[in-house]
Amino acid sequence: MLSSERSFVASLTQLATVVIPRLNEAPHLQALISDARVALMFGSAEQVLSLNGQLVHDLTVAVEDGTTPCTPASVAAIFEQYAPLFSIYTTYATHYGHALPVLVQQAEQVDLALRNVSMQGQTLFSLGIMPIQRVPRYALLLRELLKETKGDPDVQRALAVTEQAAASINEAIRAAETRDEMLKRVKGKAQALIATGHQLLRTGALSKMDRNGNFKRHTFMLFADQLRYGGHNERSVPLHGCTVARDTFELKRRGLAGTAFVLQTTTKSFIVQADTEDDASAWMAAIDEAARLAPAT
């Protein structure tokens, strides 16, 4: 365990003190290095190194100091202490997910910048993935300790918080992948919102009724604080104070009960129609929940 952790820290040290500085110095990579996604990933790598450097120190004291016996419970206590700090890995995973496509596009130029660097069989990509894999390995270690100790409660607590951290990392990777996929599908202001971290909750095609009673199909995008729709002339509806209703006299009068609903804002209302009743219900639930949590503007 300790040797593996030391090897991990050595690899992170190489990434932070050798590889990243060399890339920063490469004239042909200045556009890449100035990309916010790459800069955030590199900055997060340095934070992970700082955390794990201290973790190695504490594990070394526990294993080799000899003052107190090293037991599974004492090792578990260290991981339980550090688990709340594993959110740094989640941050790294998010930035890694955003930076990876950019780095892959420039892989040949990256290799060129590192050709005279002693990489010890590693690449930027093999070093970069290591922090993503680390917390799940801690969970595996603690599962083995749990078996050896026949369910020691200290080990069980450490495993629970470590597995929670691992799940958060996986979710961050999925969210980054989803956001990148969404960026390919949307344009205009909505694309800028996604790129700057606004949470996109739902997207899909709905029909909005105009003032003449005619429906026009739009792509609707529900963010945590606003609902956007339209194409070239994209519109935004703040969610704070919004309500949705399906069982209204107006909808029944128009014969739209079931697939349509009324969205009421603080200043106006309009009718939206989905393709199916289930889709309408899903949109209503999502808008209602987002509006309930949306901050006042």
TrEMBL record:
Q: What are the DH domain coordinates in residue numbering?
A: 1-172
Q: Which SUPFAM superfamilies match?
A: DBL homology domain (DH-domain) (SSF48065), PH domain-like (SSF50729)
* PH domain span: 199-292
Sorted alphabetically, the Gene Ontology cellular component annotations on this record are: cytoplasm
For this protein, the record's PROSITE patterns field holds: DH_2 (PS50010), PH_DOMAIN (PS50003)
Q: Name one GO molecular function term.
A: guanyl-nucleotide exchange factor activity
Q: What is this protein called?
A: DH domain-containing protein
Organism, as annotated: Plasmodiophora brassicae (Clubroot disease agent)
